[in-house]
Write a structure and sequence with these properties.
mainly beta; TIM Barrel; Jelly Rolls; 5 domains; seven-stranded antiparallel β-sheet; about 10% helix; about 40% strand; globular; disordered N terminus
Amino acid sequence: MKRKKWKKLFCRSVLLLAITTGITVWGTSIARAESLGTGGIPIDEQIPQATALFPEELLNWNAASDPDAPFNLSNVPLASRVQGAKMNEDQSIEAKVLSIAIVNRHTKGTPAQGGTDKAVYNFTNWQYVDTLVAWAGSSGEGIIVPPSGDVTDSAHRNGVPVMGTVFFPPEAYGGKSEWVEQFVQKDRKGRFPMADKLLEMSVAYGFDGWFINQETNVDAQTASAMKECLSYLQAKKPKNQQIIWYDSMIPSGAVAWQGALNETNQGYFQEGKKRVSDNMFIDFRWRDLAPSKAKAKQLGRDPYDLFAGIDVQANGVNSSRKPSSILDEKGQPIVSLGLYCPDWTLRDGAQYDLDRYWKNEQLLWINPQGDPRSVDSTKNEWQGVSRYYVEKTPVTQFPFLTNFNVGNGDAFYLNGTKAKEGTFNNRSIQDVLPTYRWVIDNAADNQLTAAVSYEDAYNGGSSIKLSGQMTAEQPTSINLYAAKVKASASEQVSVVTKGVDEVSLVLETKGKKESVTLQGERKQVENGWTRTTYSLKPVAGKEITSVGLALKNAQTAPAEIYLGQLKLGKEKTTPVSKVEKMTFSGKTIVDDKTENIRITWKSKGKNTASYRIYREDAGQLQFEGETANTSYTLLNQERAADTAVYHVVPVDQHGRENQGKATKAVYTFETLKRPEITINANKTLVSVGEPVTLTATVSKSTESIDWEIIGGNPQNISGQDVTVTFDEAGSYTVKATARNSAGETELIQEEYIYVYDQTSGIVSQNLSLLPTTTATEGSGYTNDGESYRFALDGDLSTKWCDNSSDKPWMIVDLGSVKTIAGFELFHAGAGGESAEWNTQEYDISVSEDGKNWTTVVQKRGNKADTSQDAIRLVEARYVKLELKKAEQNGKTARIYDWQIIGVDQTGIVKR
């Protein structure tokens, strides 16, 4: 969508959770144990991933045959919601907000259900968003990208529909006109198979439509077919879905952004009385929006179906255009607001630092004051979205339950007790967070401020923390949620808090200016948490429009108050559906003691909000995960015995578990095999007395590692990393033995280390810098300034970059035969780029004649910025580098330097 950022998005990649073991033919060598069996359960290369497809792949896709599909769907229905009362006089009750956000770090390789990475875009300011586009797509990873199910879950719980992305990129970034032609191809019956597949996928996965971003130049016939395809989608899509068109291509087929709705592009929005797209995103080039508004009215459409784009990807709240930029002379939005990449708050704006993320979220969506009532910011500043767009709320019925869980954290809590250690991210179970961030009124000298906190939680990974000075018996009120619920005398409200002496419930009701304050009954629960319960009899028959609290402490002192849970509605008997037919549908082997396990079960889901998964350990249930789905992947399950028992327990809408409707099944871990072992030396060409460090990479189950180096000092030694020296020149063999309870694996590397006398005249150096060394050929490069020859210049400010080849390669001619002892590669991270772009897999081969090649390095699973590969000495003139996986999950080569370590002579090797 924005050219200067396309390449960045195109290059994004993901670290696969499956561990790949390396094989180096001479340098880093491996001895394999017996091949792993399946144990009756299919073994997958990785955990379930979010979907990303090319057009031909879409035609062949169906949910029944896609093993990852059950993990990508959303079971959370789209909640109904209403507008809250205006918080300031500038808020519009008609204009809407479209968020086009990169909700996942990568197009391909995104875990379908979160994982252990806490720093993920767990967006919570849904009260200001009317539609979310899960923006993604690249010519190298896939251009048809539905939202991951966890994103849809969190959005739907807040009443926000979610769109998948169809992205046809510009030719400069890999776009192909044939992709567009395939997309709009009709079958013999006049149907659009691609459009049918889009609808099939959105229904199967449970999201709400598609954002069509067509920026590949095509001919007029294809452009006409695209408009017909949009009309076809309109006619066939379910009523609850929408199609959004990006102002890019015009009827000639050329990509010519109009920055307006006008006569040129109106046919992709409205054709006579026929709606072609439900909304249009107006490109950032807009200037005067009044003609677009007039054109929409002329076409019989609501001007607020148009979204004027503001690009905040690079500069966020420092962007030149601001929410005030689309206002008319009366201070009201001319059309609706479209924010492109508000995920700036986490990415460029915070560099994935979550403390900075929450501050940025306040600045972008609320204002510097952190209060939507404030109108202090001027039009020359970023005033925040709350300044002009009224809040919406899904609090429209009983029961309503929130644990203020944003869906990530440092540990997972259940009923106030820490149930599972370790960072996590799980947007599927994100709660509805407060409508107002923050509407706080401090009495007297109280100075409480609010923030999301990971320090403590009641359920999930977070809570709301209010901190600051408090004066004895002086209240601080906080308005939490806009609502539209009618109270009856039997209904109740409860709130769970910590660190506060008195909590009153503050309600606003329809038609009344004065709020109602209710006192409740307090009861101590777990770990310092207190539950206060209130009867709604005083407001029976009235419509509650907002829910808040008033807080008091008995002493004057600094306070730290945590809000852990808010529950609206009396707990009633709500029978949940039985969980049954639990199966283990797949596994990913992390290592020989650790597995990721795919679990699937059946349930009608009646009155069921989520499911909790437990592992039975010595008769006790250990919490492992929670989801709104009926499929889940348990990460990093460690073998304690050959089998483990897992339970799936339904949780009702009041947050209660029903063990009587749970199910369980026995899982069998892979049979333990003899350990695998890989050995490597920091160098294999050393002088007498020079220390050599030997490292063993072994299976996790390994209990001991013993080394034998005849002629070394010492000759026998134990440990994963050992250091030896040699008193005499010569070639030395290394033997390492790894043992576990299943047996032992021995690895022998013949004549692995060459030791020379200091008087021999041997000099180890970087052969890449010799004047005779040249990069003779390769797969390609992006431009003359990023040729493969820059991989040999010893300068980390230059690089070889190739984004056009599936498996980039280059060949080096040393000018004559030399003695080679090893290699050092400087990847993306070494040049200051993302470590996620570091080469993951590569081979290095050598040849004396440039025709007959011998592989000396096969590196797998690399994540390091700089990788070193020492090998047994070999004589060669030519060296070939082949990148099997040029990124952690992409194909763009980024090599900042390649050192070929050796000696500028021959005759050292005598074999």
